[in-house]
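Example with several molecule types.
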Amino acid sequence: MRKSQTGWWFIAPASLHLLVFALVPVAYAAYVSLFRWDILRDERTFVGLDQYQRLMADQAFWGAMGQTFKYALMAVPGGLVAALLVALAVSQPLKGMAWFRTLFYIPAVSSGVAIAMLWIYVYLPERGLINTMLMGLGWPSIDFLNESGWALPALAFMSVWVGLGPRMIIYVAGLMSLPVTVYEAASLDGASGWQKFWRMTMPLLAPTHLFVLVTSTIGAFQTFTPVYMMTNGRPMGTTNLVGYHIYVTAWENFNVSAASAQSFVLLFLLGLVSLAQFRMMRRRLEGYDAS
Amino acid sequence: MRAKALFTYLGLTLLALFLAAPFIWMLLVSLHPSRSPIPELSALLPQNWAWENYGIVLFRTEIPVGRFFFNSLFVSAVVVAAQVLVCGMAGFGFARYAFRGREAVFGLFLASMMFAGAVTQIPVFLMMREWGWLDTYAALIIPGISSAFNVFLLRQFFMAIPQELEEAARLDGASDFHIFARLFMPMARPAVATCAAFSFIAVWTDFFWPLIATQSQDMRTLEVGLSIFRAGYGTTNWPLQMTAAVITLVPVLLVFLALQRHFVRGVTLGGIK
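Resulting structure tokens for the full complex:
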């Protein structure tokens, strides 16, 4: 490592970019949230913390938060379990597993709009992929995206499908980093495969679970494209997820100040959730060490 | 043991089918004649393969999909090239020099990965409106020319290169920039490929930012253009909609398949940290 200020020249372009497109905007967003700012007429009135006070009583916003929470409760554990199961399968020493891993990754790199269009078809009543099968079995057709009981689970299920690849890869990496010797010792002690999975693999994967949990939760709270393309928050606001709600506030109702306040509250809550998940996971780990 | 392997293959094949089915459906429907209704699953193979759909969608509708395609290609190419250079330099600077304030600045890069996007969209929009950049290529390109994640990724790679190589080059009289451009960047080719794959796919599939940063039809990227195309053709013309979707997907899939090994490494690096 060279002790030299030359390093500054190399990091200058990226640092300038960071300053202009990340650091200044965060400060600017905080500033905007202290006004009532009409971006169409470009009029602004300073209102202090009024936006935040209103937000606390804003039923539409908290309704969206509640729906997003429900969505995350389905999508996050579902995505985690699916990815873990698939990772266990594809990390076996069998031929062709790399091929499967590549294939499973494809939905995650695909265009979100194209994926949404495909899933509109998958969920279509009568002619859609799922309903064709249901009706083939003699069941009635379900209008998944327009029935209030079905729309949110339908979006959550789709997100498990889309996000499978990256989560699976992270679990595969986690599985490969497990210490082989511990498993050999357990086998000598006569541990069954089932015991090894629950007593060793699962606790040893704790850092991986945590990473997947935190990133998936953040992802769930930022979901936008599927809602924009597939449901527009309908039916009856059940799919009005908070990422979409903030978009509508800013770019359809042109209330950028309220939207800025909303995005700060969201960021704060996501920070709390990540911290809580981190704490919980660490307590589990310590409990495991003690036993 | 044999039975277990068989069971694994069976399960994975079913899953692969489940993941691939919508894509296969999309490809086949895109080759049905324009305006034909959604085919029954039993009639999914087209009777007359309507390859002309691709020409129609790209060049012969009132929605300029060909132009969207060019915009996406141009913006992605410039962003990838700029990101490789900018993030490569920053990764090199952070990895190979001990300068005052290094830890603090690097901490800011890491922190920015947390809040990127959610909070910054509105202020960046307002700033660009002030500068008159909205609805221009600058709005689509400049916010993307650096990425904290890629700085982190290249820094990791550059830290692993032995000091002796750098010293030898210095004894030969190579300048700092020469060492970066002629020695380190060529050695980092796998990491640069990862970085390029990530940035291409991120830019090509970005929806939110181009949606709010552009207004005129001629400035739309393919991802936003596809949603416009869908709105323009309602829910009625599934073959043409699916043709447009295939056109959007093919470039990212090609890049992903070509660089997939590098891609996987990047994902796991993000996971381990």
